[in-house]
Design a protein that fits this description.
Blueprint: E1 2-7, E2 10-15, H1 25-39, E3 54-60, E4 73-77, H2 84-99, H3 104-119, H4 123-132, H5 138-151, H6 153-166, H7 174-184, E5 204-213, E6 216-224, E7 236-244, E8 248-255, E9 259-267, E10 270-275, H8 295-299, E11 302-305, H9 315-322, E12 327-329, E13 344-348, E14 364-370, E15 378-384, H10 387-396, E16 405-409, E17 412-417, E18 425-428, E19 437-438, H11 444-449, E20 456-461, H12 468-482, E21 486-490, H13 497-504, H14 510-516, H15 525-537, E22 542-544, H16 549-558, H17 565-568, H18 579-589, H19 600-624, E23 629-635, H20 645-650, E24 657-660, E25 667-668
Parallel strand pairs: 2-3, 3-4, 11-12, 11-13, 13-15, 20-23, 20-24, 21-22, 21-23
Antiparallel strand pairs: 1-2, 5-6, 6-9, 7-8, 7-10, 10-18, 14-15, 14-16, 16-17, 19-25
Length: 672
């Protein structure tokens, strides 16, 4: 059967088999209306400048093998009629692939700019993904973006349309197009870099000094690059964003030398400088900029891991990724073996880390996390309960590239999470004081990678460490970017749990919360309050795991033997045989007049009770929330030796934990 519709001076003919498909006039009208919406923006680039005024569309089955293509023929699946944007995209690429006779890399980069980029919903995200996960045509894409930025996008597209119309099916070179630009805009002649000299930028900024003049701050900085400017007189526009305590200011600097000094005035004390925050340069990205997202599955190949019984359920997904070069394995790869593997891994309905991958029971769920041993690769997990959701997801997966976690049900995107990264190459400006602070080159994303495969993170806190709250809050946010499935636990007395619950339900104000914990003197309470506020904002559960203070005091004063039967029944299993810990406490006891007010054996029993009770509460939390990752904020002194809390956790077969502790390697002192 054949159905026709027209657009501009084009006639489209749909050819299909009535045994396979039934096309109604209503279906075609809906498709045609959508086609006009998406095709209109592409008119400016000459998409309908074609010697053939008739274009044939042949509908083929979804699993049909590839067939030879012709200049005015496009083979499409029936599903493409439901996704008109994807059809327009295929149609435009098909036309340009046949009509533009350039080197493959340059042609693909030009098509990426003219079609993919122009149809992208978020152009900044598109540029960032191209820079984060470059393909063979990415250099050419950024080259044409660079040219368009110099002469203006509208001027660039107008010139290309003329060039395209004059040279359809002719063998042409990039130099021919560049000559047309130079003839049309001679003022830009000295600023057009030849493609051979266009290379990845390696940029770095160094702040030389900051001086205050009344309400303004003058920032003297130096830009360093890897380009050699000696052989040609050109400049490269470099965009910067300076965040201050009052505002953010964006500026464009014209870089004309490998090393060049600049001075910028800002309103407010500068805090951080971002280079190229809009991703308009072909450059190397910092680790802090590269998002953890589904796009990494397409950037490099890997292995799909599943049980043989699940093969029919996931066949379409496997076929999709086999076409990208993935292998299939029916042998489970344990997380402990991942350090030896340099490729992507996708687990189908087999979770290697239950606290990282916890899917809903229905629909299509896909999540990726970085490989903690090699962040170039990712570990993916997929759960599917509906073939229709799988079909929909596979057709739209390319549009969901920027996200790290997606959940689709009944053809609707219920959840899509995006990894929050820094926007641009960042240079943090230290505060003008002698207080310790976190090093500017310290990477929280890099730090968090070490803890991806640990279900429990013991976060050591010191009462008087001034940057403790900034460190732990930044660590938490970076962890949350990779895994929202976390629970926080605080080493606070158990009676404090009701205050927390009231605060989360807005029955208690922040000032009332502070009042109730003012007497806690062994943790940095300023940090604890910020952590609680962060958890409330992100809807994260928080539990207290501290000791029963009344029971602790009874043991401290009278020992275990002085407890009533009722109190003894409240105790966890207690093992008093811990010679290293007893020796450590003895050394503290003999040097402290305050401690010597108590009997040493009672003092020792009280300290052991505290650790046993803490370990028991952590174990019970794990048993209750088996599919969560825990961050437990605790007094640093209790976790820094194996014979302290780690000993009592391991005694309960709780061994999958790691310790994080801000220390001197993460800070430095400065002088002004």
């Amino acid at each position: 059967e054949k159905i026709k519709f027209s657009y501009k001076n084009f006639s489209f003919y749909f050819h299909y088999s009535p045994q396979l498909y039934t096309l109604s006039e209503k279906d075609l009208k809906k498709f045609f209306d959508n086609f006009k919406t998406f095709a209109s923006p592409l008119e400016n680039i000459g998409i309908f400048s074609h010697p053939f005024k008739i274009f044939h569309l042949i509908l083929i089955p979804e699993d049909f093998h590839k067939v030879k293509s012709f200049s005015n023929v496009l083979f499409i699946n029936y599903s493409s009629l439901k996704d008109t944007k994807q059809f327009v995209y295929c149609f435009a690429k098909k036309k340009f692939e046949n009509e533009i006779l350039l080197e493959e890399e340059i042609k693909d980069g030009l098509i990426t700019y003219l079609v993919d980029y122009q149809l992208a919903e978020n152009k900044k995200d598109f540029r960032k993904l191209q820079a984060s996960f470059p393909k063979k045509e990415s250099k050419a894409f950024f080259y044409f973006l660079f040219l368009a930025e110099r002469i203006g996008e509208k001027n660039f597209i107008k010139l290309f349309k003329k060039f395209h119309e004059d040279n359809i099916f002719n063998f042409i070179s990039l130099d021919d197009f560049l000559n047309l630009i130079q003839q049309s805009y001679p003022e830009f002649k000295n600023f057009i870099i030849p493609y051979e000299e266009f290379q990845k930028l390696n940029l770095r900024v160094e702040v030389k000094s900051i001086t205050q003049e009344k309400d303004l701050y003058l920032v003297d900085l130096t830009l360093y690059t890897n380009l050699n400017f000696k052989n040609f007189v050109k400049s490269i526009p470099i965009s910067l964003k300076i965040k201050t305590e009052k505002e953010s200011k964006s500026v464009v600097l014209n870089l004309e030398n490998e090393i060049q000094d600049f001075q910028i005035s800002v309103n407010g004390k500068p805090e951080v400088i971002f280079i190229d925050p809009e991703y308009k340069l072909w450059r190397d990205l910092d680790f802090e900029e590269i998002p953890n997202c589904i796009a990494k599955l397409f950037y490099s190949q890997g292995t799909i891991i599943l049980k043989r019984d699940n093969l029919p359920t996931y066949k379409k997904f496997i076929d999709y990724f086999r076409n990208l070069g993935y292998k299939v394995s029916f042998s489970f790869i344990d997380f402990s073996e991942i350090s030896k593997i340099s490729e992507n891994l996708i687990y189908l309905d087999i979770s290697p880390l239950t606290w990282q991958f916890n899917p809903p029971s229905e629909g299509f769920y896909l999540k990726v996390i970085p490989n903690p041993y090699n962040s170039k690769y990712v570990i993916g997990y997929l759960h599917v309960s509906s073939q229709s959701d799988l079909d929909w997801a596979l057709k739209n997966l390319v549009y969901l590239n920027p996200y790290s976690e997606i959940f689709i049900q009944s053809g609707k995107v219920i959840l899509k999470r995006e990894d929050k990264t820094l926007e641009g190459i960042s240079t943090f400006i230290p505060p003008p004081s002698e207080k310790p602070y976190i090093k500017s080159n310290f990477s929280f994303r890099g730090e968090v990678l070490k803890f991806i495969n640990s279900q429990i993170i013991l976060a050591g806190m010191e009462k008087d460490l001034p940057f403790c709250k900034d460190y732990l809050k930044s660590f938490l946010q970076s962890l949350y970017n990779f895994n929202t499935n976390i629970i926080l636990a605080l080493d606070l007395p158990i009676f404090f749990q009701r205050f927390l619950e009231d605060y989360f339900e807005n029955k208690l104000s922040e000032s009332q919360l502070k009042e109730n914990i003012r007497n806690v003197d062994y943790l940095n309470m300023e940090a604890i309050l910020e952590i609680i506020e962060w958890a409330k904002m992100n809807k994260i559960k928080v539990f207290t795991v501290g000791v029963d203070y009344e029971l602790f005091l009874q043991i401290l004063n009278n020992g275990l033997k002085g407890l009533s039967q009722e109190d003894l029944s409240k105790l966890p299993e207690i093992d008093l045989l811990n010679p290293p810990y007893k020796e450590f406490l003895s050394s503290l006891f003999v040097t402290s007049e305050n401690l010597q007010k108590f009997n040493f054996e009672n003092f020792y029993e009280a300290q052991v009770f505290r650790l046993e009770d803490l370990a028991e509460k952590i174990k019970k939390l794990l048993e209750t929330f088996k599919s969560n990752q825990f961050v437990i904020f605790i007094q640093k002194d209790l976790i820094m030796k194996d014979w302290k809390l780690p000993h009592y956790l391991q005694k309960r077969n709780v061994s999958n934990f790691k310790i994080i502790n801000p220390n001197d390697k993460d800070i430095k002192s400065i002088e002004y």
